[in-house]
């Protein structure tokens, strides 16, 4: 075949150099099974290769031409080999497409373009790059360096936005394997090896060293980050003279290796992700991998102790002393650290401002001023950190007190706690004795009103829901039996019960040991008692009994929205009309909270698990534990206790604790995008290329492909214009500046009036601050620093 393809060229050109060692592919001269292109200089070859000796399946590959070991660096048709007896052909078609086909004419791989005529030529360059060019002026149309397989060659640029290396499946099987490598540079350069959609190992670029070129005799690496925006790339070149061949590759076991050819075999210059300690989050939350000794080992950060026993770090570490919000905290300066994952980059901060940023946020557990003078802070758990023996950053870890003082506290605290407990027991006994003398029901009502009056001024007649006795509730729930439990959250458990006259109810029993729970309890009772709306969950009664606090709600059999939205089997129940109805219902419930009730109420924790569905799938906003009431003309407030669910919280709230009705608008926007797309705000499917749902939605929107965001399960039932309008409104709601976000009244207007003109959304920059979202089993990061976490009522 090879010779036959040469004949026309002999005739046409009357002279030809050895046709098989050409470096070009033209329209007149396709490449057949036994042909190869050899780059000018002789370093690389392109042709067909079968990794198994039986020659059963053919791949179009690039390999090193002049070394003794056949080493493939690029494969075109990795998942579509050409199997014998069919034989392969690579050709440039009349449409200027580069096409790999078999003898039956099936296309296995192609580079399509819209150039017509005899305008293109493909050339194998001596760096190992196969480029398709337009002939008159050499404009590059396509190049293999932009589409690497498992190998990154010197001078190839790998894009942060879309570039990745994907491992082979097996040693001798080039098809797509489990492992992939991608680059991030939201603030510090890091790259992540993934096993499927799970992070497998995270590696940081040492600030003075290099990523791949650990010092190795005679080989000098030059590494660079160039480009801007979506064009940001990483590139390495070998600048020493007479260097042997060097390549970086991700092998089929997930090991990232830098290799050099030493005339006989490939030797490792560096290998990554080989020890257990290297693996992502292997030391658990607040644990770190200590690289200082000979063998990397998991340890706890100072001020923390292991949760598990012995060397089992899967549970990570816990504080020896809890942080208290609002109290001055102490920062421990840890040096030469691999910075933990999931940081927030706060732009334009000096080291002092960065420390203040952390101190002002109750969720903040650490901050760093990187060597590039970037302020990074962490909210919640510190995960996947380590200590190096030379490079690394200074990590300032927030502790309740210095570790020396901790030891004192450990002794004194139990004594104080003991005394307090004794006092409490005495007081409670006295109270109980007195209380028993009075009539039971009266006591409840009187206590309740006194209690409520002491927190917020309300008139007596405002509180007209029934007080239920503890005994009745205990009977209704079979004495709080496990079989009646239908959910649990940060503040306690939720039971299903049968109450006389009301039938099925959901009973929320606040846990006794959560001191903060009392605040939340007051809040919830006072608020919901006053609220009556179709889209808000109804509070039917309450009970205070000793230190027990219970709330009785209407029972909603369909549980919460997230149990439908993110469940592969149940998401089909939510067809488009239902989803649209839910979106509008939540918007109306929120509008009622913001504007239509007598007060302005900010919910502060709107999310899919807080939207309950009744039997008709009417959405009901629940869980007002975090809600705040604004009186009169108050527009905005600040808090030092930032509570909520990560991803749903607006940037100004997370960063500065400022909240307003527009913080709820933000959460609503996120929820809306989730309902349309069926993707979680921190969705593993998105992680590969996007930082989160908002980033993903924005990219599709910008590219005019917003319709692709709509979840496949509603394709048959949806109205495209409604879905697009929802996405548009969602993007308006998640804009960075609170002033840019619409009020809920406008949101409803925009959703319900097809003719309403919508302004163009601005790019949400918030996503650029996060490095990437969690893909761990925890579905929402309920951050708890000061012993407070938010309530999740599920299972109703
Ligand atoms: C292979 O080619 C490279 C680049 O042209 C050259 O530097 C090297 O000496 C050659 N190696 C062998 C073994 O021929
Ligand atoms: C496979 O192909 C190679 C080169 O193309 C050849 O040397 C070898 O003999 C072939 N093996 C079989 C089993 O046909
Ligand atoms: C491509 O063009 C040549 C000459 O113009 C023609 O002979 C040939 O049939 C065309 N091939 C196809 C597949 O259209
Ligand atoms: C295009 O590239 C080839 C080889 O790379 C070179 O010989 C030719 O002069 C270039 N043409 C132009 C117009 O740059
Ligand atoms: C290259 O030539 C083509 C056709 O002649 C033209 O369309 C294109 O704009 C040129 N590109 C550059 C970079 O000059
Ligand atoms: C790749 O993943 C599959 C399951 O997804 C697993 O069975 C297989 O062992 C994995 N291979 C490697 C090398 O980890
Ligand atoms: C990669 O993940 C798969 C399942 O997704 C698992 O079976 C396999 O063991 C993992 N491989 C490694 C090396 O952890
Ligand atoms: C490879 O061989 C050449 C010549 O035989 C020698 O100069 C060079 O040092 C060798 N390279 C390595 C890495 O051994
Ligand atoms: C290179 O590293 C790999 C992966 O750790 C290992 O399997 C291999 O034995 C090493 N090769 C040499 C020559 O040390
Ligand atoms: C490690 O501890 C966790 C709980 O913290 C436990 O589930 C797991 O089984 C333990 N693993 C081993 C190997 O002991
Ligand atoms: C933390 O420690 C390092 C090394 O001792 C020192 O250079 C740095 O200034 C310290 N940072 C602060 C804020 O004290
Ligand atoms: C940061 O500072 C630079 C220059 O001082 C300014 O141009 C930029 O707008 C600032 N960025 C932010 C987010 O404030």
UniProtKB/TrEMBL annotation:
Q: Provide the binding site for ATP.
A: 508
Q: Read off the PROSITE patterns from this record.
A: BULB_LECTIN, PAN, PROTEIN_KINASE_ATP, PROTEIN_KINASE_DOM, PROTEIN_KINASE_ST
Transmembrane stretches in the record are 411-431
Entry EC no(s) = 2.7.11.1
Q: Which residues form the Bulb-type lectin domain?
A: 22-145
Name the membrane topology term: Single-pass type I membrane protein
Gene Ontology biological process: recognition of pollen; response to other organism
For this protein, the record's Pfam families field holds:
B_lectin, PAN_2, PK_Tyr_Ser-Thr, S_locus_glycop
Protein localization: Cell membrane
Q: What class of enzyme is it?
A: transferase
Query: Per the database record, which ranges form the Protein kinase domain?
Result: 480-758
GO CC annotations on file: plasma membrane
Domain Apple, by residue range, is 325-400
On the tree of life, the source organism's domain of life is Eukaryota
InterPro entries found in the cross-reference section: Bulb-type_lectin_dom, Bulb-type_lectin_dom_sf, Kinase-like_dom_sf, Pan_app, Prot_kinase_dom, Protein_kinase_ATP_BS, S_locus_glycoprot_dom, Ser-Thr/Tyr_kinase_cat_dom
Family according to the record = Belongs to the protein kinase superfamily. Ser/Thr protein kinase family.
Name assigned to this protein: Receptor-like serine/threonine-protein kinase
What species is given as this protein's source? Hordeum vulgare subsp. vulgare (Domesticated barley)
């Amino acid at each position: 075949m090879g010779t036959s393809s040469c004949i026309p060229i002999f005739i046409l050109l009357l002279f030809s150099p050895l046709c098989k060692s050409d470096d070009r592919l033209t329209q007149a001269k396709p490449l057949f099974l036994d042909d190869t292109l050899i780059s000018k200089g002789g370093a690389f070859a392109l042709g067909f290769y079968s990794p198994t000796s039986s020659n059963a399946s053919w791949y179009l590959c690039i390999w090193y031409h002049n070394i003794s070991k056949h080493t493939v660096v690029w494969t075109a048709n990795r998942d579509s080999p050409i199997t014998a007896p069919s034989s392969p052909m690579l050709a440039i078609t009349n449409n200027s497409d580069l096409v790999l086909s078999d003898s039956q004419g099936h296309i296995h791989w192609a580079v399509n373009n819209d150039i017509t005529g005899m305008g293109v030529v493909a050339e194998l360059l001596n760096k190992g790059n196969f480029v398709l060019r337009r002939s008159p002026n050499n404009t590059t149309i396509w190049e293999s360096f932009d589409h690497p397989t498992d190998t990154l060659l010197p001078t190839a640029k790998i894009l942060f936005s879309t570039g990745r290396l994907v491992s082979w499946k097996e040693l001798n099987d080039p098809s797509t394997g489990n492992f992939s490598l991608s680059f991030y540079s939201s603030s510090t350069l890091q790259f992540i090896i993934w096993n499927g959609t799970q992070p497998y190992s995270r590696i940081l670029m040492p600030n003075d060293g290099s990523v791949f070129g650990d010092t190795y005799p005679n080989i000098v690496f030059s590494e660079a980050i160039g480009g801007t925006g979506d064009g940001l790339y990483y590139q390495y070149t070998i600048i020493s003279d007479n260097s042997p061949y060097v390549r970086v590759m991700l092998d089929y076991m997930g090991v990232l290796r830098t290799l050099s050819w030493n005339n006989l075999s490939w030797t490792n210059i560096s290998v990554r992700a080989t020890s257990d300690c290297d693996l992502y989050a292997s030391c658990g939350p607040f644990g770190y991998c200590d690289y200082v000794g000979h063998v990397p080992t998991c340890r706890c950060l100072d001020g923390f102790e292991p949760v598990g026993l012995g060397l089992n770090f899967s549970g990570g570490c816990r504080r020896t002393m809890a942080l208290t919000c609002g109290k001055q905290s102490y920062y421990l300066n840890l040096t030469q650290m691999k910075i933990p994952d999931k940081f927030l980059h706060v732009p334009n901060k000096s080291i002092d401002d960065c420390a203040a940023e952390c101190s002002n946020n109750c969720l903040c557990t650490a901050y760093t001023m990187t060597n590039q003078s970037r302020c990074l802070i962490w909210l919640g758990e510190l995960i996947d950190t380590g200590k190096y023996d030379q490079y690394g950053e200074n990590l300032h870890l927030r502790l309740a007190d210095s570790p020396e003082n901790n030891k004192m506290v450990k002794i004194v605290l139990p004594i104080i706690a003991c005394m307090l407990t004794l006092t409490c027991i005495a007081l409670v006994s006295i109270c109980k004795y007195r209380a028993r003398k009075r009539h039971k029901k009266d006591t409840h009502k009187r206590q309740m009103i006194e209690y409520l009056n002491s927190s917020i001024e309300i008139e007596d007649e405002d509180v007209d829901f029934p007080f239920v006795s503890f005994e009745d509730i205990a009977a209704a729930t079979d004495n709080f039996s496990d079989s009646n439990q239908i959910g649990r959250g940060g503040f306690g458990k939720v039971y299903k019960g049968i109450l006389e006259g009301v039938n099925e109810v959901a009973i929320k029993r606040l846990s006794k040991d959560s001191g903060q729970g009392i605040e939340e309890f007051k809040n919830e009772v006072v608020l919901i008692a006053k609220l009556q709306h179709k889209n808000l969950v109804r509070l039917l009664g309450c009970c205070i009994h000793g230190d027990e606090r219970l709330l009785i709600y209407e029972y909603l059999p369909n549980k919460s929205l997230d149990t439908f939205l993110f469940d592969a089997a149940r998401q089909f129940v939510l067809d488009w009309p239902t989803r649209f109805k839910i979106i509008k219902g939540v918007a109306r419930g929120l509008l009622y909270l913001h504007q239509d009730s007598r007060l302005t109420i900010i919910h502060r924790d709107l999310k899919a698990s807080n939207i309950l569905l009744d039997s008709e799938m009417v959405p009901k906003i629940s869980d007002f534990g975090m809600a705040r009431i604004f009186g009169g003309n108050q527009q905005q407030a600040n808090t030092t206790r930032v509570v909520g669910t990560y991803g749903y919280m607006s940037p100004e709230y997370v960063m500065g604790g400022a909240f307003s009705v527009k913080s709820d608008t933000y959460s609503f926007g996120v929820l809306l995008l989730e309902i349309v797309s069926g993707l979680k705000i921190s969705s593993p499917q998105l992680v590969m290329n996007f930082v989160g749902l908002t980033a993903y939605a924005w990219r599709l929107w910008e590219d005019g492909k917003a319709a692709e965001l709509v979840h496949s399960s509603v394709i048959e039932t949806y109205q495209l214009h409604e879905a697009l309008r929802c996405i548009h409104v969602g993007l308006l709601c998640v804009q960075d500046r609170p002033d840019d976000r619409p009020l809920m009244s406008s949101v409803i207007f925009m959703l319900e009036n097809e003719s309403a003109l919508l302004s163009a959304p601005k790019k949400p920059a918030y996503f650029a601050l996060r490095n990437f979202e969690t893909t761990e089993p925890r579905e929402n990061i309920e951050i708890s620093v000061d012993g407070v976490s938010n309530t999740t009522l599920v299972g109703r």
